């Protein structure tokens, strides 16, 4: 009811606002880094998981949009700077700035093209990482080896 | 309109003659004849052009030269004051014509009365502020500075008060507005070519808008 409770509410509000940063703690804050995975492993996960597989596939496809946007932005703004300003350091800076802006806008286009706003992007990435962790360290755990069966049972 | 201009120009020296006749008791016949033959702007360099524009045909140059010394000798201080006011009026009008846009010129042509310069400081102070592209640009800059200052002080206030998504969105908008204005000042100072600067500012605005939207979405995913 007092001012202290108000500031406690503000503190909790900001804690929930910055909850999305926990994802980076789970991915990069490991005691020992995971071994490197390949595109074949990602494709295997996409084929095996019916819920997060399509989401991860769409997330990987959206990188092409970002790359195309980066090229378009760099070419356009760099071209404008090269044509009108003709300063070498200006052309370099304009190309870099155009690439960044183009990549962000390309990601925005992909967000609406694949409807990524309906998906849990961090959840899909985390699910793949957990799957990869279990797959890599699975055989080294004797009790898990005993429990695992050859036929997967859908939960 | 031309007849109205001619009537006004004829009435003006008659009124002046009557005023001077009543004030200083000059001979009425000689004063009236001299002032009626006097042109509107005798010694200004652009008087003929101005007369042609307004539709007023000045009389011959010789009669003006004849009348001028007598007028100056009869009323030295008052005559010089009137002469100075007429010269300054001519210069202000010519300067205004150069600066005014076409719309203002056409609107001025619609009203045939010549612009009278205010004599007293109070009248000059009461006069309405001028409207020109430069003052419009100045108002834009002033409004932008006010918005930047308001959003700057909005950030700590919302940081201490906000407990729902709407006020947090306002806070994110205020922060990114500061980022945008800061970067815009840098681009305005260091990018000198007009077209390059315009495109760079367009890219900056798009980038800041998308980043602000993404931050708002990350803060309260719904």
TrEMBL record, chain A:
Sections of the chain in a coiled coil: none
Kindly give the Pfam families that the UniProt entry links to this protein: Rick_17kDa_Anti (PF05433)
Matching InterPro entries: Gly_zipper_2TM_dom, SDH6
Q: Which GO terms describe its cellular component?
A: outer membrane; respiratory chain complex II (succinate dehydrogenase)
Q: Where is each Glycine zipper 2TM domain found? A: 68-109
Matching entries from PANTHER family are given as:
SUCCINATE DEHYDROGENASE SUBUNIT 6, MITOCHONDRIAL (PTHR36708)
Entry protein name: Succinate dehydrogenase subunit 6 mitochondrial
TrEMBL record, chain B:
A single GO cellular-component term from the record reads: respiratory chain complex II (succinate dehydrogenase)
Q: Where is the composition biased (Basic and acidic residues)?
A: 99-108
Keyword Endoplasmic reticulum: yes or no? no
Q: Which residues cross the membrane?
A: 200-219
Q: Name one GO biological process term.
A: tricarboxylic acid cycle
Q: Which InterPro entries match?
A: SDH4
Quick check: keyword Transmembrane helix in the entry?
yes
Assigned keywords, A-Z: Membrane, Transmembrane, Transmembrane helix
Biased segments, Polar residues type: 76-93
Start and end residues of each stretch annotated as Disordered: 76-114
Q: Which superkingdom, per the lineage?
A: Eukaryota
Protein name as catalogued: Succinate dehydrogenase subunit 4 mitochondrial
């Amino acid at each position: 009811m007092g001012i202290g409770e108000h500031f406690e509410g503000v503190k909790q509000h900001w804690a929930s606002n910055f909850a999305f940063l926990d994802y980076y703690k789970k991915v990069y804050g490991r005691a020992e880094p995971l071994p490197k995975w390949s595109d074949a492993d990602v494709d295997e996960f996409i084929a095996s998981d019916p819920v997060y597989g399509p989401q991860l596939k769409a997330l990987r496809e959206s990188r092409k949009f970002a790359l195309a946007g980066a090229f378009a932005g760099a070419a356009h703004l760099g071209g404008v700077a090269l044509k009108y300003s003709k300063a070498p350091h200006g052309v370099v800076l304009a190309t870099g700035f155009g690439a960044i802006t183009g990549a962000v806008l390309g990601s925005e286009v992909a967000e609406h093209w694949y409807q990524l706003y309906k998906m849990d992007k961090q959840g899909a990435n985390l699910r793949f990482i957990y799957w990869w962790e279990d797959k890599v360290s699975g055989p080294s755990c004797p009790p898990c080896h005993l429990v695992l069966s050859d036929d997967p049972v859908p939960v | 309109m031309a007849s109205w201009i001619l009537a006004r120009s004829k009435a003006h020296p008659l009124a002046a003659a009557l005023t001077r006749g009543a004030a200083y008791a000059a001979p009425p016949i000689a004063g009236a004849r001299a002032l009626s033959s006097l042109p509107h702007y005798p010694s200004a360099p652009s008087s003929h052009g101005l007369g042609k524009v307004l539709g007023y045909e000045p009389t011959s140059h010789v009669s003006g030269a004849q009348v001028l010394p007598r007028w100056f000798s009869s009323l030295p201080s008052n005559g010089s004051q009137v002469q100075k006011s007429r010269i300054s009026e001519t210069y202000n009008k010519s300067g205004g014509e150069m600066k005014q846009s076409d719309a203002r010129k056409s609107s001025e042509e619609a009203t045939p009365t010549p612009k009278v310069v205010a004599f007293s400081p109070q009248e000059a102070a009461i006069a309405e502020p001028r409207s020109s592209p430069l003052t419009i640009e100045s108002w834009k800059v002033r409004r932008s500075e006010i918005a930047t200052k308001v959003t700057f002080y909005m950030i700590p206030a919302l940081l201490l008060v906000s407990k729902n998504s709407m006020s947090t969105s306002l806070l994110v908008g205020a922060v990114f507005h500061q980022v945008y204005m800061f970067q815009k000042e840098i681009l305005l100072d260091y990018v000198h070519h007009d077209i390059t600067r315009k495109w760079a500012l367009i890219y900056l605005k798009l980038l800041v808008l998308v980043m602000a939207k993404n931050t708002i979405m990350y803060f309260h995913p719904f």
